[in-house]
Write a structure and sequence with these properties.
The structure is a homotetramer. By secondary structure, chain A is of the alpha/beta class. In chain A, 31% of the residues lie in helices and 18% in strands. Chain A has two domains: 63 residues, 2-Layer Sandwich (Alpha-Beta Plaits), CATH 3.30.70.1140; 251 residues, TIM Barrel (Alpha-Beta Barrel), CATH 3.20.20.70. Chain A has ten helices and 14 strands. In chain A, strands 13-12-11-10-9-8-7-14 form an eight-stranded parallel beta sheet. The first copy, chain A, has a four-stranded antiparallel beta sheet with strand order 2-3-1-4, with helices on one face. A two-stranded antiparallel sheet of chain A has the order 5-6. In chain A, helix 5 crosses helix 6. At the B-D interface, strand 3 of B face strand 3 of D.
Chain lengths: 338, 338, 338, 338
């Protein structure tokens, strides 16, 4: 942390800040500049957020953080990449992992047909929501446990692994009974009670970036899970909210190589939510491979125009087959395989 | 909903969309324009989100919503303003309601001293967090039930009403035991399980706008609560996330008169989070009165520079006294009183 | 500037950065922390942007600016507020200045009728565009010199002062012939050639904040004008671009007290562009007074629904009369008068 | 355009809007819905922006545009892709075009050394700024004509084509004397006088997307140039401004396939400004190839840590060689070549 004093701060004000830094357990290192004094605070990084309060001390202009506040998720403690195992799959290795399926589980026919199609096209994991976070209370809210059972049946039939969302801590035991990966939706990236409880679960967690979450906040949310004992966390870039309205979100693909520099955790890309535009998904899937993603999450529906949710961004099975053909052409350049 | 076809869409494509609209239970009204066909879909508004899926139908360019998707929160069904009663207080009336107190309850001394100070300055409700949503797992997470008890003691001593945050559905019964208003924090604005459960609670709810939430999404979240049976919802504008970094958030004060046009629910302003800068809070409190806010929520701490959280945006008690003096000067112009 | 080295940076890397800082004319002050070294660079602030290039040096993690890069526009050199004189008017004093009129000058009748109406309602300055920056080349582009002459005629008839936009350096002499204040539109806030040339003009400049401009960038643009010799600069907050779509822009009213802390220059508010919604303008005008604005800029049109531009955010003359009545009620609380 | 009336609008209000639509030269098609009336307006798209003013008419709730307001830049009039010729180069064909060089021309040695290096690595066009738009008036503003001469000398020596920025209409003749492509910088994307004048120039124009420009606004700015007679426009995605601060901008790579759907114009990617982080540029260059970019613009400097501008995002020549090796591996998958 760097505490920058105002031009004209008095000696008493500077001394007071130095004293406060000491009281909070840090060492103060003042630099006396031409126009103002800046003071470095040295010590254990994890509690340093408290030093922000010094902005309330007289004569202080600004408190500027220098270090990254994440530890367990960061590369400084662990320089090799983590591999998260999901059954036989190794997420974060040279194996590229594709999760595909409908936004919502709608019916037995729908989910089994989709599972079969995405399996044949090369996906290894089936996605599908049983508990659905919907903006409107009047929209379809998911089949709940019935949906989970249908996902389990699809796994039985196809051998695909399952990823599905858990929306609230109470549901973790129920959802864990049926799924291989517990998904945290974008709107829950900072649902800290949920994150802590997932840190005690014995399932890998897929943590989606919030549409307004910074890369640093995403990593702090991963830190919540890891610090409770569960280090099987997979990150997912799925688009952020900006002023652009042609696309549903702005797909921040640069976040993928950036995250690979900052964390050892695997990072996958979700071009379906990332763009929200069906015709852009195949191209952006190729781009995600080139950007170094460890996998993809793609919405596929047998009949998008009648989907209960996200129809406008769901691919038909034959479109997904073409997407996978493109992905296969690109994987060798990144030394990856399915 | 308006479904806009591509220039060059075939007659078959247009007819198919018209048929699909009919199948979903709406009436289709095509307009044959110079360059393209647009089709209006008429019927009950609440389920219309499903029509979005038609963007996946061949020949469709865009599906544009026309109507507002909220009903119970909207002014079309209820043209007068709602008054939410909190004990003797009437939020949403000509009584202006001020909620003040620390970000977190830190100790008995701290909360009692603050309660006493804000009561004397004219506040009617004490705020203070016992369960704290913090970006970092290493930051102070709140005193939990111990904090709730201290708030109850402060109420006992001062007669102030209490507002405090509930972070997860399981905690609603516990928090309800001690508080007058259940607060939904900005990061939980779209925690739909929490919203539904609060719709079944028998306490007024203070719903804070998410830093990434549109005004429409805020109203849809209120709709979740009301549609479950609890219509005592108070909305709170507390700043949104933008590119500007001088302030912690961008305080969207225009949202207050806008919300008053769109909804009958009371709307208060939180200039502490709205700006995140202590020196801006008094001025923006006056501006909030002028913008028509039904009340204020302000962070006050006896010693901001040692606060466990939000010190940089907390006022000292004597600064809060000045703020209240300013507010008192402005209230008569809006025909309000404390 | 603070240069933060990576954890694990070698002694050679640190020494190299210290040497480079010296070569660029600054003094280096290293702080050796627990996990990394941070280096303060001391010296004249104005050229320090160059130090950013050190992010390219081996071992450097981040270069963090500490000081504000504006000087002439800042309060550190000049602690009292500047007053910009426009004829008898004193912008930035206890006189509150209202600029009102149509978006575009459309015809002799339109501008004279509007001028007369806004004068009677209490405005002191007539606004109206003769050169119009329009998103589409197919939209009305302004009456150009003809429009300027009509503005001059309106001044003649009413005694109102004139503010009108200049879009390009070549037009400064022409526009200066007819106007009292030269306006820089939001899209030209970083048209640096225009800013420099306006720094050599002998007319006050109204500098509008860009919809993508930070407060710091706005002040740097003012610095361009002042550093060329023209210190008569009036700043204008007119809304920034965010994710919210109900309003045309997000009116960043907190920027007004923030600017008053950072700069001695006068600051006015434009609620017409700030919100883009006619029904919000009167309320946000009151809020702007309470926020400490030195004046207002408001769009008024005799027949908004037939306006060539900005009809949806233009007030009718009778609505403007009501707005001014409200403003008059609020001014005494801020010790201001018209 | 769709004009949506308020629920409860009177027959007189609806009839008035229908009449106004007729007066402006459009055909009105009302749809009488359950809760409100919506009215389609049919006619020539280009002037429809005027219909927005109807938001000021009594009873109107919202005016919603349906059609895209660009014509000449759009694909509806021209379905094949345009190829912009720059000497022998064909931008927008299966030839992939790489523009590389320093942010600013700083000296003869610097530019000649860089030109030589990027030529050897495979670039076909040299970039370098002689007129520099800088946020601060105290930063290096460019060598101006001297810089242009050095660029011309580099062209002479290497055979590379030249792209350089023109900041103001008056400079177009001077800059045209020395350059092959006239660049419009991001901050000038809506400098409409400059755009119009470039529409009369006889040089291809590289139009950079503004950091707050929507895709639609970018195309409207291209429309300005084309509508004046110059259809040799190359678009460039270079990152937009969002809340994320780890990267300088958010590189909106999805805009590339989106633009290819909306326009026939070539689209290149600038990962240097797009990310602002040197270590991300090589990866994002590969991703840009996969996203279908027609070329790249990359900042290269012989000694980034001493660069006068943009050092933190400039590659060293040997890093650029590696980037080009990666690009070469990816081009065949997109059926492109250098």
């Amino acid at each position: 942390m760097i505490i920058s004093m105002r031009a004209g701060a008095t000696k008493e004000e500077v001394d007071h800040v130095i004293e406060q830094i000491g009281k909070m357990g840090y060492e103060a290192h003042p630099i006396y500049g031409k126009e103002r004094v800046v003071i470095g605070a040295i010590g254990d990084e994890r509690g340093k957020a408290r030093l922000h309060a010094l902005e309330a001390a007289p004569g202080v202009e600004q408190v500027v953080p220098i270090l990254k506040p994440f530890k367990l998720a960061g590369r400084e403690l662990r320089s090799d990449r983590s591999v998260v195992r999901v059954g036989d799959l190794k997420v974060g290795s040279d194996q590229f992992v594709v999760m595909a399926g409908p936004c919502s589980v709608e019916s037995r026919e729908q989910i089994l047909e989709t599972a079969d199609a995405v399996k044949k096209a090369g996906a290894q994991i089936l996605r599908g929501g049983a508990f659905k976070p919907r903006t409107s209370p009047y929209s379809f809210q998911g089949l709940e446990e019935e949906g989970l059972k249908l996902l389990a049946e699809a796994r039985e039939k196809t051998g695909l692994r399952i990823v599905t969302e858990v929306m609230t801590p109470e549901d973790i035991p129920l959802v864990s009974k049926y799924t291989d990966i517990l998904q945290v939706g974008a709107r829950n990236m900072q649902n800290f009670v949920l994150l802590k409880r997932l840190g005690q679960a014995r399932r890998p967690v897929l943590l989606k970036r919030s549409m307004m979450g910074t890369v640093q906040e995403l990593l702090m949310s991963a830190e919540y899970i890891i610090s409770q004992g569960n280090s099987d966390v997979i990150l997912c870039e799925r688009g952020i909210r900006t002023f652009e309205t042609y696309t549903r979100n702005t797909f921040d693909l640069s976040a993928i190589p950036l995250l690979h520099q900052l964390t050892h955790l695997p990072v996958i890309a979700d071009p379906s939510h990332g763009t929200g535009v069906r015709s852009l998904i195949p191209t952006m899937s190729k781009a995600a491979v080139a950007a170094g993603a460890d996998g993809l999450m793609v919405e596929v529906h047998p009949n998008p125009e009648e989907a209960f949710s996200d129809g406008a961004q769901s691919l038909m099975p034959r479109e997904f087959v073409e997407l996978m053909a493109d992905v296969r052409r690109y994987l060798p350049l990144e030394k990856r395989h399915l």
